Amino acid sequence: MSKADEIFISNMRSIIDHGFSDENQQVRPRWADGTPAHTKKQFCIVNRYDLGKEFPAITLRRTAFRNAVDELLWIWQKKSSNVHDLHSHIWDSWADETGSIGKAYGYQLGVKHKYAEGEFDQVDRVLYDLKHNPASRRIITNIYVHADLHAMHLYPCAYSVTFNVTDGKLNAILNQRSNDMAVANNWNVVQYAVLVHMFAQVSGLQAGELVHVIADAHIYDRHIPQVERMLKGTPLPAPKFEINKEVTDFYKFTVDDVALKDYRYNEFSERFEVAI
């Protein structure tokens, strides 16, 4: 069993068996038929993944690795907030007629700020510090910008990353205000595990730990029977992560430069309805 499966199963069982139901509260999300999308949830789940030991992809079902990496690069490398720059359609529900999701996600990472060393956006500041100030305790990105929330079509879910270099290893804390555990939990874990590997490689470091802090970890009511069926699957060993060692510039990475080798997973084909 992969460590990611072990963590995922523990999280899901804890939420289903002991979580709080918001069925008697007013909630914002709706199903496509207009019905309120209620959840069972737990406050503040913290998961740790040692990227030096294994890659944290679950095997109870397939995580769409290429699409996850494509979205990661859309946000962190292209710094885009337009779905026309994205190859999947996961953001289409929040895009306007021009394809924009507003001043969200990639837009915020691309805003430049002035520092003593020069002008950087958030991504370039991180890359600069990892090479020049690896002992810094200030290597942080934040896209939950209150001044621009009114111009975002969706408030950021995964909103902040703290990077820390210890003993030549790059560690990261991903802070997430809200996580749809059935649909997006492992998707986000896989994305930020790849980001740590990429940033570590171009900075001359080794990938260390990814710590995932989720404030509101929830399972939607209509997803619970599907999750129960998925949890009956047989977890398999973790896949091996492969990265093109020749890439030394973060902006030169493509989805073809990373891959999962020997990724075996359960054939769980049920689709989860998405609440909007």
TrEMBL record:
Metabolic or biological pathway, per its Swiss-Prot or TrEMBL entry: Pyrimidine metabolism; dTTP biosynthesis
Family the entry assigns: Belongs to the thymidylate synthase family. Bacterial-type ThyA subfamily.
Listed name of the protein: Thymidylate synthase
Record GO terms (molecular function): thymidylate synthase activity
Keywords: Cytoplasm, Methyltransferase, Nucleotide biosynthesis, Transferase
Location in or out of the cell: Cytoplasm
One GO term (biological process): dTTP biosynthetic process
Catalytic activity as recorded in UniProt: dUMP + (6R)-5,10-methylene-5,6,7,8-tetrahydrofolate = 7,8-dihydrofolate + dTMP
One cellular component term from this protein's GO annotations in UniProt: cytosol
Domain of life, per lineage: Bacteria
Thymidylate synthase/dCMP hydroxymethylase domain boundaries: 8-267
Active site: C157 (nucleophile)
Assembly, per entry: Homodimer.
Enzyme class, first EC level, given as a word: transferase
Chief location bin: cytoplasm
EC number of the protein: 2.1.1.45
Gene name of this polypeptide: thyA
Residues that bind (6R)-5,10-methylene-5,6,7,8-tetrahydrofolate: D180, A275
Upper classification of the organism: Bacteria, Pseudomonadati, Myxococcota, Myxococcia, Myxococcales
